[in-house]
Each structure stands twice: as C-alpha cells, then as structure tokens.
Automatic annotation (TrEMBL):
It is an enzyme of class 2 (transferase). This is Methyltransferase. Pfam families: Methyltransf_11, Sterol_MT_C. Signal peptide: none annotated. Pathway: Steroid biosynthesis; sterol biosynthesis. One of its GO terms (biological process) is sterol biosynthetic process. It comes from Rhynchospora pubera.
Length: 367
C-alpha cells in the first residue's frame, strides 16, 4: 500500500513538474506561443535541419553577402528562411515585438517595449485618419501598439508568409484587425503606390537590407510629400575598432546569428538618407544614457538557458518539435551572447534613431 501510494504521489509530482516546465515556463511573455507549439514557420519538419545548414553556410561571411552582387540578390530569400526558423522561438521566449528597448526603472520589459513603440508614433505625428507604413512588421507587435496609441491605420509589410498569418491572427485577437493590415512582400520592392502613406517607420528591420539606400528609396517613394519616416537602426558605434579581433568577432557574431548582410556604421546613416532625397530632422542613439541598458533581457542565467535547452531537446526527441530546433535555439543563445557583448562594450546599438522628412517640393519633382 505504501509503495503504491509513493508511486502515485511520484507520478503526480512528475506530471505537475512537466506541466509547469512546459506549459507555464514554456509560455511566451505575451502568451503568443508555448513551447509545445513550436514550428519552423512554413518549412516542413523534414526540411528544417537542411534549411538551417543552408542559412548558416550563407551567412558565415556576412560582409560578402553585401559586396557580392549575386549573394546580395539571395539575401531576401535567406532572411525569409531565417524568420521561418526563429519566429516561433522569438514569440515563445520574447513576445510579439521582435526588437529591443531601453530598460525603464520601475517598468516591466513589456511596458518598456510599449513606450519604445509609442515613441515612434509620436515622432512621426501619427493620428486618426493617417495611413502609416510599418516596414518589416514581423508578427505585428509594434503595429498593434502604434495603431492603438495613435488611432492611425497601420499597414505592415513582411517578407515571411508565416509571419503574415501570425500577425493577422494576433490583430484579430486584439480587436485591431480593422486598424491593422498585413501584406507579404519585399520592402526593397514594395507593392504600394507612390505617395500613398502619411508616415512610415521601421523598427530594427532595415538592417536586413544589403544596401540601406534601396529600402530608404522605397520608403521615400511611397511617402506623401511632407511625410515623416523614423527608423531604429542596428549599427556599429564610433567605439568599434575594426583592428580589434574581439570587436570583429562580436559584430560578426551578431551578423551571422541575425541574418544581417553586414552592419553599417552609425556615421553613415544620415548621408544614406540624404542620398535618396530625405531631409534629416533628428538623429540620436536611444541607447545612450540616461536610457537604461537594452541588453538586460539577454543576460539569461545559465540555469534558464539549460532549462530551455533541455525543453527543446525533449520536445524534439518526442517529435513534438521538428529536428533542427535545438540547433536554432543554440544559434540564438550564442547570438544573444554577442549582442550582450556589443551592448556592454558600447560598440553596437540596435536603436540608432533617425527621423526623416520627404520634402514637400518632392511632389513637384515627381510630376
């Protein structure tokens, strides 16, 4: 009797531990995904490992993808692959807004993220009646925050079909599907008419473009004259030294693990914006003091990492998650280490803000 009781009690304890470990600890911050729901976007389960291998091979030398014309043409397809591989893991571990934000004393990460997004709406003076473009919208976390904050109609574009489906589902669940529209497309060749948006923004998205001037030119084209565009750019700061091997390894680690065809220097952003016709209204690194460290969320303890690692290993072994998830998780953890190093040394920022205006006279030049 005592033996059976012990077995029964042990079974209940194990079941409770599994429930807590997988469904409670495995849930996304904003309850978008749980660990048992992890998929690799639109990639079939039997192709995940192959796609991961192809991705890693392509981005092993990031700078070459931007300088080599044939490689640059392939970047959008590999960025699409990247987001198939990481979207569910991002939602599971991070939430619905795939970007960083400065930490704010007394505020949760979620609240700090919302404030960072609402600043975008304020910078471009978005308001009811405006049609605003989200360049690289992901699963639409910022889109929903900005639509709710400003009352604007927000149209997002992402190259990844799986993200389109996720964003639409989230929009509907949030009751914002009438305010938020999602389009699948390449932001280097956007399917929108000239001068069809009152404002535009991109949050840590244009870093995927081989040549920044190409995406800025597209944003310039679809903006109405006088319209404002703000972008939060991933860049190296003036503290970066190309002759420092540790600096180089950190930056290349960020590039390899985030599908980036070479990070740009902070000092180059304004000149690129001006080269396509924009007026630069304001430029600022939002990561500088008094802003709190943006990388605090990445400083995951070893226990938390091994918990997540064990979880994805178990789910893969049980065939709940597809083969290749473990490798993708390891890649993202390693990338988080490089991002943290970049933040702590000050050689990298993911939130170099540039606010631009399309000149009113541009309407005369276009006619």
């Amino acid at each position: 009797m005592e033996w059976s009781t012990a077995v029964w009690t042990g079974g209940v304890a194990v079941a409770a531990a599994v429930y807590w470990f997988v469904w409670v600890m495995g849930a996304a911050e904003v309850k978008g995904k749980s660990a048992v729901d992890l998929k690799m976007g639109s990639i079939s389960d039997d192709k995940v490992k192959d796609k991961y291998t192809q991705y890693w091979s392509f981005f092993r030398r990031p700078k070459e993808t931007a300088t080599n014309a044939s490689s640059a043409e392939k970047v959008p397809a590999f960025v699409d692959t990247f987001y198939n591989l990481v979207t569910d893991i991002y939602e599971w571990g991070w939430g619905q807004s795939f970007h960083f934000s400065p930490s704010v004393p007394g505020r949760s990460h979620r609240e700090a993220t919302r404030l960072h997004e609402e600043r975008v709406a304020d910078l471009i003076t978005a308001r009811p009646g405006h049609r605003i473009l989200d360049v690289g919208c992901g699963v639409g976390g910022p889109m929903r925050a900005i639509a709710a904050h400003s009352g604007s109609q927000v149209v997002g574009i992402t190259i990844n079909e799986y993200q389109v489906a996720r964003a639409r589902a989230h929009n509907k669940k949030a009751g914002l599907d009438s305010k938020c529209e999602v389009v699948c497309g390449n932001f280097l060749k956007m399917p929108f008419e000239n001068a069809s948006f009152d404002g535009a923004y991109s949050i840590e998205a244009t870093c995927h473009a081989p040549h920044l001037e190409d995406v800025y030119a597209e944003v310039f084209r679809v903006l109405k004259p006088g319209g404002l565009y703000v972008s939060y750019e991933w860049v190296t700061t003036p503290l970066y030294r190309a002759e420092n091997p540790e600096h180089v390894e950190t930056i290349q680690g960020i590039e390899r693990g985030d599908a980036l065809p070479g990070l740009r220097a902070e000092d180059d952003i304004a000149s690129i914006a001006k080269s396509v016709g924009f007026e630069v209204v304001q430029e600022k690194d939002l990561a500088l003091p008094p802003a709190g460290p943006w990388w605090t969320r990445l400083k995951m303890g070893r226990i938390a990492y091994w918990r997540n690692h064990l979880l994805v290993c178990v789910l893969t072994a049980l065939r709940i998650a597809p083969k290749g998830v473990v490798e993708v998780h390891e890649m993202l953890y390693e990338t988080a280490r490089h991002l943290t190093n970049g933040g702590e040394t000050g050689i990298f920022t993911p939130m170099h803000m540039i606010l631009c205006r399309k000149p009113v006279k541009a309407s005369e030049e276009e006619n």
